[in-house]
Specification:
Elements lengths: L1 E5 L2 E3 L20 E3 L1 H17 L2 E7 L5 H10 L3 E5 L9 H15 L4 E5 L10 H9 L3 E11 L2 E7 L4 E7 L2 E5 L11 H7 L5 E3 L41 H11 L4
Parallel strand pairs: 1-4, 1-6, 4-5, 5-11, 6-10, 7-10
Antiparallel strand pairs: 2-3, 7-8, 8-9
Helix pairs in contact: 3-4
Length: about 260
């Protein structure tokens, strides 16, 4: 079973700046980490490989420094990794990102299974995985908490709002996984030493089947951010240093209708 896992480097802090003109995050100079939800997708892929054989390839769309999360995936056991990096891809919305990743995956090869985390911590849309599947024309299932190979495909147990549904999908297919599907392993120092300077493949738009710049980045995005601004901090506070503070607290709680 050949598996492709979509991973992403996200800011390691919630204190990031946003470009007021484009509405995208300013990632330059900001420490990054692997998107936590993607760790569950990667661990799922590694367990499937250990039980059923095959390969695990990871890929991320981002600037050159995103090589760091590919190397982290190597230390966890991934076989191969790609960074899809090109300035012409920058500023993409959900649809353009989904299309970009579908083209990037096609440029790498054919895969039986594509795994994604439920969402990213810097976007929170939970839409990119299904968008990739739609552009690739393959079946997909979201909110999956259990995944089992079965015949020519997989059985996926989905945690829907009111019910748990199990679906069978033939290969190739795409699955976005929930956090309770498994516990991710820690990167291995032994593996880190073994991989040494294992290369991370860098691909740009010119390597994709579709090289039309109008389909990528801001130009290929169906939505645009009209205005973005930091939330106003209107918190009030009082300092009580002496007197009957217990009574003051009682009156304050009564005023705010907590009691």
């Amino acid at each position: 079973m050949n598996i492709f896992v979509c991973i992403k480097q996200v800011p390691a802090t919630n204190k990031v700046q946003v470009d007021e003109k484009t509405g995208v995050l300013r990632r330059s100079g900001v420490a990054g980490k692997m998107n936590p939800y993607d760790l569950y997708a990667l661990e799922t892929a590694l367990r499937l490989k250990e039980r059923h054989g095959g390969t695990v390839t990871v890929g991320t769309m981002g600037p050159p420094q995103a090589q760091a999360v590919v190397r982290e995936a190597y230390m966890m056991g991934a076989d191969d990794g790609y960074v899809f990096s090109d300035r012409r891809l920058g500023g993409a919305d959900v649809l353009a990102t989904g299309y970009t990743l579908s083209q990037a995956i096609r440029s790498v090869g054919d895969f039986d299974l594509i795994l994604c985390g439920r969402q990213t911590t810097d976007g929170d849309t939970a839409q990119v995985g299904p968008a990739i599947a739609e552009y690739l024309g393959i079946p997909h299932a979201a909110w999956v908490s259990r995944l089992t190979p079965s015949g020519d495909g997989v059985d996926a147990e989905q945690q829907l709002q009111d019910v748990i549904e199990t679906v069978h999908m033939p290969f190739p297919c795409l699955v976005t996984v929930e956090q309770d599907i498994c516990m991710p392993r820690l990167p291995s120092l032994k593996t880190a030493r073994a991989i040494g300077d294992k290369p991370v493949h860098m691909l740009g738009l010119d390597a994709f089947p579709d090289t039309d710049e109008a389909h990528y980045g801001l130009a290929g995005s169906a939505t645009q951010v009209e205005r973005i601004f930091p939330p106003a901090n209107e918190a009030e506070h009082e300092v009580w240093e002496d007197g009957d503070n217990a009574e003051r607290l009682r009156r304050a709680l009564a005023k705010w209708k907590f009691i």
